[in-house]
């Protein structure tokens, strides 16, 4: 059991939130796949991940509160959250793991790593991110 | 004021792009920032001469959109998750790509990427999209989805000729 009380294993039915703090990652009420693209998790271990949060889509006020905590004192604005089920993440050939702290934090893992060809790695990960975005719903906050 | 800022961005981008462009520069000599800036101005004039105002305007609007996003995302952590600033050379490459798109092709939407690259997207709903990712080099990573069909790949862009494979896909998606 994690500090939040959530089980370590992310259940297929759990909602996963990717908060959006940049308007250029949205278009026509949908989140762009670029919002899901991964980043290196550490300089030492070459692994890519996308930080997300485990929280139901409702109540919106609680989602908004969590989003504001994640935002902290950055100058960005909380626009909303892309909501996707853990099942959809796995259907996109990716994995999701609880990663607390912070509370409810998780990582989307399983992104392509091609050390010898960064563009091929990028293309594969764009393909995966497009699949995730297609399964996501944007909730304005 | 904004146009001036955008122009400066491209100028700055061009100045900063010399090293990267070295690899694709003509064998006859190096490309100086001044030469590149001049080239860009010549391109603008030529495009204006050969295309109707409406098409010229569509491309220009797409390029201005690209410049705006490159400017807005030119600081670290622009996405709130530690994103890298948009690389000006990557923005330049995307700018050139729009420049050389055939007139009849729909212009793309620019989208920033967390690793400092910038995308040009042709999106027709959630399940029909082509996305090209521009980095500082001369290779473009791309991915596409059309309903349940999807794919990805890498093509080379010489800052002049739109890769035939990409052009065919964009035309198919019209």
Describe the structure.
The complex is a heterodimer of chains A (141) and B (174). Chain A is of the alpha+beta class. Chain A has one domain (15-140). In chain A, 26% of the residues lie in helices and 27% in strands. Chain A is built from 3 helices and 9 strands, in the order βββββαβαββαβ. Chain A has helices at residues 60-71, 86-91, 118-135, and strands spanning 15-20, 26-27, 30-31, 39-40, 48-54, 80-85, 95-98, 105-109, 137-140. In chain A, strands 1, 4, 5, 6, 7, 8 and 9 form a 7-stranded antiparallel β-sheet that branches. A two-stranded antiparallel sheet of chain A has the order 2-3. In chain A, strand 2 and strand 3 form a beta hairpin. The relative contact order of chain A is 0.27. Chain B is of the alpha+beta class. Chain B has one domain. Chain B has a 5-stranded antiparallel β-sheet. In chain B, a hairpin with a 5-residue loop joins strand 1 (109-112) and strand 2 (118-123). The longest helix of chain B has 20 residues, at 53-72. The radius of gyration of chain B is 16 Å and the shape is globular. The chains are: A alpha+beta (141), B alpha+beta (174).
